[in-house]
Amino acid sequence: MIESADGASVTARRNTLAPVNMMASKISVKVGGVTIGGGAPISIQSMCNADPSDADAVAAQVIELADAGCDIVRIAVPSMEHVGPAREVRRLTRGIPLVADVHFDHRVAMALCGCVDKIRLNPGTMERPGSMHKVARALIDTGTPVRIGTNSGSLPRGLEDMDKAVALVDGAAQWIDGLRDLGVNDIVVSVKSSSPATTIRAYELASSRFDLPLHVGVTESGTATSGAVRSAAVIGSLLGRGIGDTIRVSLAGPPIPEVRAAAEILSSLGLRAPGMQIRACPGCGRARMDTGSVATRVEAALKGCDRAGIVVAVMGCEVNGPGEARDATLAIVGTARGAAVYEHGHLVSTGAIDEAINVIIAKVLAMPATKPD
């Protein structure tokens, strides 16, 4: 039996972690209990990759993502046959902002308006005559927001040979302008490319052209390592200049690492209070211990441990170790005889490295959890 996550708790956690984004777009769009734009905190998004025919599997993934800190979750609805399962997912996940990803068939979007919290449409795959007018009517009648998202791999016809950044923005504008003329106002925009440089240029153009909330990310960015680096470079560059209101780190594989990477990007930029951090020096010829393996062991032992704001420093020797220990909640520092453990800058124990690791882990686990009930 799948139980829906508590929507109030999800919203409460997000609001305690994220300061106001003063530089974002002036217009705001409400997606369930989450506000995008208008100076609201920058939200984290991800997307389920479970079989869209299996409502229980998709719902379980939605709840898992929300529990991991994802603010808005998107699900694929490939055809009319998947509308029923999508409605069941909505029933099982009440309180979690849910977005339906729709391509090719406007009837799917119309059928889910008023059921989910937002519809995502791609102008490059939504080209049937009359689609825009019919979807606009359904959006207005149900008060459902929409994200118009262009991708470099599926540009509208006639734009394929243009400069890619310009084509992404022009392709989005075709639907944005049309929907606004028809009375649709709750619109979010994305203009993603698999090229980081093109993505940055596209969002720079979009931010100057649209006074609408921007969903920022690199499409098809890569694996957990390469994709996270590319996404961080793009998202960090844009958010640092006030471009962007909600983000997704698109990675190949399970979606949970997307949420973790996104949260790390926001906390690194000071846009969200950090969770627990494991810091480690890179190691050198002076190191009294292998900081990489020690940090990995500590991180693995504390995986999933909800202790926001706690900093654990793993330092190889006495050169920077005591200084870093003063700024960390807990620190393990390599010594000639093993390792020393510091708590808030004060030496609390010395001994073998394995013993020091156990002390660090025990102390963290004894600290109160920070996640709301």
How would you sum up this structure, described in words?
The structure is a single chain. The chain is an alpha/beta fold. The chain has two domains: 7-268, Dihydropteroate synthase-like (TIM Barrel, Alpha-Beta Barrel); 277-366, 2-Layer Sandwich (Sulfite Reductase Hemoprotein, domain 1). 39% of the residues lie in helices and 19% in strands. The chain contains twelve helices and 15 strands. The strands form three sheets. An eight-stranded parallel beta sheet has the order 8-7-6-5-4-3-10-9. Strands 11-12-13-14-15 form a five-stranded mixed beta sheet, with helices on both faces. Strands 1-2 form a two-stranded antiparallel ribbon. Helix 4 packs parallel to helix 5 (131-142) and helix 6 packs parallel to helix 7.
Q: What is the compact description of this entry?
A:
The chain has 373 residues and is of the alpha/beta class.
